[in-house]
Amino acid sequence: MNAAAGTSRDLASLVGTVLDGTYRLDQLIGEGGMGAVFRGRHVIMMRDVAIKVLHPDFNRDPELVRRFDREAQSAARLDHPNCIHVSAYGTTEDGMRYLVMQLLEGVELADLLTEPTAPKRVVEWSIQILRGLEHAHSQGVIHRDLKPQNVFLTRDAHGNQLLKLVDFGIAKLVGSDAGDPLTRAGMVFGTPQYMSPEQALGVEIDPRADLYAVGILMFQMLTGRLPFNHEDAIALIRMQVSTEPPQLPDNVPQELAAIVYRLLAKQREQRFPDARTVRAALERYRSNMSHKGRGDTSDPLLDIGSVTTDTATRPLPEALRPRQLDFVESVLQTDRWSRRTWFKAAIAGCVVLALASVGLIYWLFFSGDPPAPAQPEPPAAESPADPSKAGDPAGPSAMSPAPGPSELELATLDDLIKQGKLDEAQTQIDALLERYPGHAQLVWRDARQLAKRPTMHESAVRRYGEVLKKSPDLERDLGFIDEVDALLRKRPYTDAAIALATDLGAAGVPILVHYINDAKPWATWAQRRQIRDALPADAAAQIDVVLNRRRDLEQFAEAPEPCAAALPVLQAIQAEPLADYVPALKAAVAPATSAGAPADPACDQAAALLATVRTAYAGRFPEAFAPAKPVKKKPVTKKKKKKK
């Protein structure tokens, strides 16, 4: 009997075992290099689950144990419809580690990419993938191995198509121990076909590495093939680092192609700043296509079967099976029980040397001037240092080298705010601020507790603005951004909210776009000008042009020079006749020179143009301009009283 057969027999013998008196292993439904997945049953709650176990033989390997623990730690942070849900994790008395997950039915995305996918479906799928990443990144989890095998298609309880991200076995936890081998710079993990350039070079990564993988996935979905592929792993890594992606087919809309190419930028600074921004861009593209009638409505949703609990006879999808080590990982792993350890070590040395060579070539030929070494900044009395690590669920950590509250005091405040004991938290914050005036961490927590008070919205916005001015680097902190984003999307929207969204930089762009495209007419002419001026040029495509032209026509009287403001709006409405403009045209008052002011030719021109446009629209949309017909009242007939 070979080793594989022996391992399979050992795993099969676990059927019927009840782990920790709670989870019964009913059927072996998937095996892999590290262990197995069983269909299981929560014997108390009587609920079917999937249970992943690490093979007993590997419990002696600290690297594999750490990797299994990493999957549990990563997934345990996540609670989102587009991420696999892990409900429990533990170790049995005999040392076997296990992970309890929801039991899914459906197919892997990999099974559906045999041919090009319709752009509409690509957009829908990508938005769901990005929602999952958006949540994971906000919790400090970077997937690092996003690929079609790790995206699972199922349906929710209402029958709607649902994508889930699975297998967080090599995820990077932001804020984890720098000495952890699974996150240490210089180590290469992942699948080369979907690996970002910085990941391939073994340098420190951030959430934008996952966005590069999204670009690979979208390219593959749109074309049915990978943008970069090679049998030689080293050659493939070299392509990821230095080869530009091939052109997308002509049938891919240019707006969608632009999003894909930006995701595939070699320099991460040139990609989208975060998953939220990409999702917003795709949602805006989808909205534009629907508005223009260019959506692919003929493409039905794929039938992947309804959700049932009868999955015992189905093989486990590859996405949920214990992951096999890919080539790059396997040669970097040590195997103390193998007779070919020296051979693996030799291969590993060659791979590492080749990777180093690729890195050197990349930095020499494909990057700009090397950055100057960072100079230490002199400590300031109240100048915060590095912000807290992104996505840390415990909240921000100390940002200032100056004297400040202890970690215990900050943790106490976090607990009070989390429990809703806001008055108690406010009292302690005020006392600490007397000892440490203006300390960024205390101001942050003050903003957080204010944000939870329904009547203190404006104060919370101002307080968050103070935190950002004290620590500008927070505009890249996912935890901070998530808090501010949630606050700024609550009404009322004010000048302070617009200013804070602007100060957030790239992270604030989706909020500003949300503001200027809001269907409710809360924004004044000046506020809308302020938002437009703050938006970068590449965000112009996300603005709802029709809505904002209508607003301009309704509000030009508020402009400093009303007549000059009215002219370009009327010209645009004349050039592109739409029924959406009719109500604003009918209600518009002809601009005129103010009493006592010198004559303004622009006013006469604007008034004449308004009359011309109205006449043209009346001919094009006669029903909208037809006078309302008077409502005829029915005569009231008095009932005659019957004589007694």
TrEMBL record:
<keyword id="KW-0067">ATP-binding</keyword>
<keyword id="KW-0547">Nucleotide-binding</keyword>
<feature type="domain" description="Protein kinase">
    <location>
        <begin position="23"/>
        <end position="286"/>
    </location>
</feature>
<keyword id="KW-0418">Kinase</keyword>
<dbReference type="InterPro" id="IPR011009">
    <property type="entry name" value="Kinase-like_dom_sf"/>
</dbReference>
<dbReference type="InterPro" id="IPR000719">
    <property type="entry name" value="Prot_kinase_dom"/>
</dbReference>
<keyword id="KW-1133">Transmembrane helix</keyword>
<keyword id="KW-0472">Membrane</keyword>
<dbReference type="GO" id="GO:0005524">
    <property type="term" value="F:ATP binding"/>
</dbReference>
<feature type="compositionally biased region" description="Pro residues">
    <location>
        <begin position="372"/>
        <end position="381"/>
    </location>
</feature>
<keyword id="KW-0812">Transmembrane</keyword>
<dbReference type="GO" id="GO:0004674">
    <property type="term" value="F:protein serine/threonine kinase activity"/>
</dbReference>
<feature type="compositionally biased region" description="Low complexity">
    <location>
        <begin position="382"/>
        <end position="401"/>
    </location>
</feature>
<dbReference type="InterPro" id="IPR017441">
    <property type="entry name" value="Protein_kinase_ATP_BS"/>
</dbReference>
<feature type="binding site">
    <location>
        <position position="52"/>
    </location>
    <ligand>
        <name>ATP</name>
    </ligand>
</feature>
<feature type="region of interest" description="Disordered">
    <location>
        <begin position="372"/>
        <end position="406"/>
    </location>
</feature>
<feature type="transmembrane region" description="Helical">
    <location>
        <begin position="342"/>
        <end position="365"/>
    </location>
</feature>
<protein>
    <submittedName>
        <fullName>Serine/threonine-protein kinase</fullName>
    </submittedName>
</protein>
<keyword id="KW-0808">Transferase</keyword>
<dbReference type="Pfam" id="PF00069">
    <property type="entry name" value="Pkinase"/>
</dbReference>
<dbReference type="InterPro" id="IPR008271">
    <property type="entry name" value="Ser/Thr_kinase_AS"/>
</dbReference>
